Amino acid sequence: MNDRRSFFVLTMLVFGFAFLYLPIVAMVIYSFNASRLVTVWDSANSPTLAWYVELFKNTQIMDAAKLSFRIASVNATGAVILGTLAAFALERYRRFRGRALFGLLTTAPMVLPEVITGLSLLLLFVALEQAVGWPHGRGSTTITIAHMTFSMAYAIVVIQARLATVDRSLEEAAMDLGARPWKVFVVITLPLIASAIASAWVLAFILSWDDIVITSFVSGPGSTTLPQLVFSKVRLGVSPDINALATILVLIVSVAVVVAGTYMMRRDRRRMRDAQAALGATG
Amino acid sequence: MALIVAGGGDAVSTSVGVVTGLAGRFAAIRGGFGRRVVIALPYAWLAVFFLVPFLIVLKIAFSNIQLSMPPVEPVLTWTADHVLQLRVHFSNFTFVFGDRLYLAAFVNSLQVAGVSTLFALLIGYPMAYGIARAPGTWRNILFLLVVLPFFTSFLLRVYAWMGLLGRSGPINALLMYLGITHEPVQLLQTDFAVYLGMVYSYLPFMVLPLYSAIEKLDLTLLEAAADLGCRPTKAFFTITLPLTKEGIYAGCLLVFIPAVGEYVIPALLGGPDTLMIGRVVWDEFFGNRDWPVASALAIMLLLILSGFVLLLQRVQAQEAEA
Known about the structure:
heterodimer, A: globular, B: mainly alpha, three-stranded antiparallel beta sheet
């Protein structure tokens, strides 16, 4: 390869990753700064864990985090159930009436601006309350419904991609041996797509946990999620306890991604070894 | 300006019509009970919570503001003599078209999204190229490093820039240390900060489709070109770039579409005069409590974006076939 070009690509890689990670690293470092001004380093008293202590003592933040966790878990479970059904419909029942509209409805929530989705869902909830008296006011129920609607689109993409690679002869063999369709699904298909369902669950959880715009439209006075609280705080400027919160979240996510990443790499390597062994045995 | 249409009892509200139409469609789905449930359940959910809401937005975009809860005049009303009356106002659209501010917000949003997409492509393409050409283990690690920010909070990543760009932040400190400036420069709450935040937040969306396109590229083509005496730069522009254009389209659309309607980035990093349509819709709704104008703006934004969304669907369908 041309040296000058590989030098350019390497420079861009370093620059690009520095661009992606320096703000996060800076945020982590400042979380240990004693100064309330966040970016003015107080070398006399830093590093300190004071903001972490303050964070855990702040009941408002802790309550919001609990609410967000609850909504995100319920949302992820619902989105994965609906998403699995939808992915199965799109992948296995290739032809049915209204499939084109269904396809559009399953992808549109991913790309539409959140202000539009949020506004339209709020107007729906208001109209429903007027017409049938449900939902009564807005709160965690309406937030969960709204989150499920957009995060199920992501779940569908993940699960459908996996479903497309499942060897259908296994399902057909079970069917030939007289298994009922739902039994084939539970015994054969579900275990094969389990890892995709798990990834879809995590993705749906994170989307909900992180959402601010749609949530702001459909939430009520009694239900403030963590992103809403963070947003209203940081609008007024940088805040040291938010740096501490961000550091904890970044740490959790990094550990999770590294664990999942090494697991997948190990699995790929094992598969490759198995495949080579199989080839060696036949040869 | 109001258009009043009155009809007998046969006039049915649009939402009801759509719901009954879909119900008929579910009933017509052939096959066993299980199959029907598998299709109908998610379909019904999306119809009720995604399709019908848009019809309501459309309805409210054609109604008038009124002091009540909800603060809109009903479009459909039953008159005393049991006639269903449909009252359609175009005033929201004439108002939006008549006001320079809204037009400027649309133009500015498209510009900010377009320029940010271009910069994301210029940074993202070499990155994706480098990752795709990196040796085995490195490739996996770098790929994970691109995905990782996607899983950390979007809001907090935008917030991180508030500290960096602030008057007492490290960027200003560096500029002053280098003697480029003697007093802090206003970086936060500027258009520059909005562009920076956009490129930063959406860069992973650009890199991922580019990576998968470059990774699929057949390297023997480049070897053949080199054997025939083609210079690497020329080979890049005549082979690599055209063969990865699907990835370029997908990446650009994935950055551009959400960037046009972005709210959080201009709200946190932009100044009070940073006009973006997502922010204007938000302010009309929460600030002015003008639901009809917010709805009219949302409909217009939807119309502008729908072309790009359809384009993205076509690109992704082509990619799936390839």
